[in-house]
Write a structure and sequence with these properties.
701 residues, alpha+beta, PH-domain like, eight-stranded mixed beta sheet, 33% helix, histone binding, DNA-binding
Length: 701
């Protein structure tokens, strides 16, 4: 059997939210690494007390209980992996992996059991839900009632904030079940209470995030920030990392505390607590403990009386209480000799520190990026000036960070550092082709090929081509009509490369043929009138016979009042449900009676429908005749108007008209009969006879 088992895409349930990561089981114990924060949970094999396999929302899950009462839940396993896990637990941990399903009856009455850090609500032997008592922020009691309040989870879209338990009274004297319940909860709950004296107090420390000056009180289990406006209580269990970073001016120091979950004020979340110290500021510190307690608790890491620089005292006390290492900058040195690089991130200037295992940017907003979550880095030319460059980092989750306005003198040092850490450089070929010297980089603007600049040029060309295509398309799709007899001069000026002063259309045509202009005039014919949209469907005729009701509806109308009297105050929906149940339970003989009534109603409807459709057809024929007559009368009126208009306007020469007339226009005139033309001309007293079809055609030619 293998000594280790590894599972990817496993989810750890922490305070109601699921954090994805990698789970590794070995002989020494169980290790889970959070993909988002990099936090590692290590459970020693000797600490494991129980393992439970159960079905959950994300497939199957594993619940581990330790001997000191802690509970760890991991979800995302497949059903086929049970045998492999069960054999591994037997062989290496000497534990039987028990299968235990959750109760899904939906009852709200059961038994509460306290086991370690867990409150379990059970029905019989099956658990319904479990509450980690470390999530409880407050516990209050009432008459036969206990209320639990929880810490708000910022990672979850919906957070459970309160649960109330009803505790029935018992006959036992001297024991209050409500108080006993509350004491069991409070003994394991994460209720932060500033009781007792602080170990030490640091007065008026300058804090960059959250901004302001705060008194920091150090308690055994939490850190208390007391300011003029806000107070924050930070448990040491939420501290992920500690950083001590020198400022570029060599006169100040940053002390950064990374928090998960973050402290919050309204909708603002602070994942980092950043303190700024002056190196010249000293302090003498006395711990509020006797020497024996200090020696027993801190094992020589702290003493009762200490003195030194203020930033050293704060970092030393925090390291001892949180029990985490302090991260400092590594071997990186910039062009100016500092261990950081001045740059901008999101329109704010700050300092980027290359560390041994990541990058950290301070201070607004603070960013910490580990090397193991970086997909690649990229060196890009500055967008505004060639005297600076941008440093881009993209993570495996797809998040991109761009640190801009870095001085070009820092390029060689930063590239050497990234290359030494074996990070994937996106444009490595470009940078290796150039000498790794900031002087060479400064002279590479004209000579060297720049991939970023070429990409920008290509995007600019594509935008220009798209703009030209759109302008050409919009120019061709004009709606103006083209009349050669009227707009000949304008056409020559617009489309002819060698425009002539002649106004004849023939010269303009010959010029256009000889010169072959780039753009060609497009003759757009007069648009034909659009067809009328079909009329919308007519509404329902109120005189039409109504459809017959079904047997059930006939019975319901007859029985509605009876049901209401039998069930006073019944709602409409409940009445419909009750009626459906009664109809379903009705005997076949009674239903047949209502079926006969429904059949009679259907026959009456069909008979009335036939009479209605016969009358409707007569009405339709009369309306059609009426519309036809109106159309004929309207047509005669239009013909009289057109003939009178053509006869009143006299032309100076035969076949020549003031405006150009197309063949379509002439053919439309031919639609009228010769007799109607004569009658119209006699009535109007026209001086010239109506032109024949042959004359019209020759004139148009």
């Amino acid at each position: 059997m293998a000594d280790t088992l590894e599972f990817n895409e496993i989810y750890q349930e922490v305070k109601g939210s699921m954090n994805d990561g990698r789970l590794r089981l070995s002989r020494q114990g169980v290790i889970f690494k959070n993909s988002k924060t990099g936090k590692v949970d290590n459970i020693q094999a000797s600490e494991l007390a129980e393992g439970v396999w159960r079905r959950v929302a994300l497939g199957h899950g594993l619940k581990l209980l330790t001997k000191n009462g802690h509970v760890y839940k991991y979800d995302g396993f497949r059903e086929s992996e049970f045998d492999k896990l069960s054999d591994f637990f037997k062989a290496h941990y000497c534990l039987e992996l028990a299968e235990k399903d959750l109760c899904v009856k939906g009852w709200n009455w059961g038994t509460v059991r306290f086991g370690g850090q867990l409150l379990s609500f059970d029905i019989g032997e099956q658990p319904v839900f479990e509450i980690p008592l470390s999530n409880v922020s407050q516990c209050t009691t009432g008459k036969n009632e206990v209320t639990l309040e929880f810490h708000q989870n910022d990672d979850a879209e919906v957070s459970l904030m309160e649960v109330r338990f009803y505790v029935p009274p018992t006959q036992e004297d001297g024991v209050d079940p409500v108080e006993a319940f509350a004491q069991n909860v409070l003994s394991k709950a994460d209720v932060i209470q500033a009781t007792g004296d602080a170990i030490c107090i640091f007065r008026e420390l300058q804090c960059l995030t959250p901004r302001g000056r705060y008194d920091i009180r150090i308690y055994p289990t939490f850190l208390h920030l007391h300011g003029k406006t806000f107070d924050y209580k930070i448990p040491y269990t939420t501290v992920l990392r500690l950083f001590l970073l020198p400022h570029k001016d060599q006169r100040q120091m940053f002390f950064v505390i990374s928090l998960d979950p973050p402290i919050k004020q309204g909708q603002t979340r602070y994942h980092f607590l950043i303190l700024l110290f002056s190196k010249d500021e000293d302090i003498s510190l006395t711990l509020n403990m006797n020497e024996e307690e200090v020696e027993k608790r801190f094992e020589g890491r702290l003493t009762k009386n200490m003195s030194g620089s203020l930033y050293e005292m704060v970092s030393r006390v925090m390291k001892a209480l949180v029990n985490r290492k302090i991260t400092v900058p590594g071997n990186f040195q910039g062009h100016s000799g500092a261990q950081c690089i001045t740059c901008s991130y999101k329109a704010s200037s700050g300092l980027l520190y290359p560390l041994e295992r990541g990058f950290i940017y301070v201070h607004k907003p603070p960013v910490h990026i580990r090397f193991d979550e970086i997909s690649f880095v990229n060196f890009a030319r500055g967008t505004t000036t060639t005297r600076s460059f941008d440093f881009e980092i993209e993570t495996k989750q797809g998040t991109q960070y761009t640190f801009s306005s870095i001085e070009r003198e820092e390029y060689g040092k930063l590239f050497d550092f990234v290359n030494a850490k074996k990070l994937n450089i996106k444009n490595r070929g470009l940078k290796e082709g150039m000498k790794q010297s900031y002087d060479e980089y400064a002279d590479s603007d004209e000579d060297q090929h720049d991939a970023y600049l070429e990409r920008m040029k290509e995007e600019g060309k594509i935008r220009e081509e798209n703009a030209n295509d759109s302008s050409d398309g919009s120019g061709e799709e004009t709606d103006e009509s083209f009349n050669p007899g009227e707009e000949d001069d304008d056409v020559a000026e617009e489309f002819d490369s060698n425009a002539s002063a002649s106004s004849s259309s023939g010269d303009g045509d010959s010029d256009r043929d000889d010169k072959k202009p780039a753009k060609k005039a497009k003759i757009v014919k007069d648009r034909k009138p659009r067809k009328k949209q079909p009329e919308s469907k007519k509404g329902k005729d109120p005189n039409a016979p109504k459809r017959p009701m079904s047997a059930y509806m006939l019975w319901l109308n007859a029985s509605r009042e009876k049901i209401k009297s039998d069930h006073p105050g019944i709602s409409i929906t409940d009445l419909s449900k009750k009626a459906g149940e009664l109809w379903k339970a009705m005997s076949k003989e009674k239903k047949e009676e209502w079926d006969r009534k429904a059949e009679d109603a259907r026959r009456d409807y069909e008979k009335a429908m036939k009479e209605y459709s016969k009358a409707d057809s007569h009405r339709g024929e009369r309306s059609k005749k009426k519309k036809k007559q109106e159309k004929l009368v309207k047509g005669k009126g239009d013909k009289k108007g057109t003939t009178s208009k053509s006869s009143s306007s006299k032309s100076p020469a035969k076949g020549m008209s003031d405006s150009f007339k197309s063949k379509e226009f002439v053919s439309s005139d031919e639609s009228s009969s010769a007799e109607s033309k004569k009658e119209d001309s006699e009535d109007e007293g026209a001086a010239s006879p109506a032109p024949s079809s042959e004359d019209s055609a020759s004139g148009s030619d």
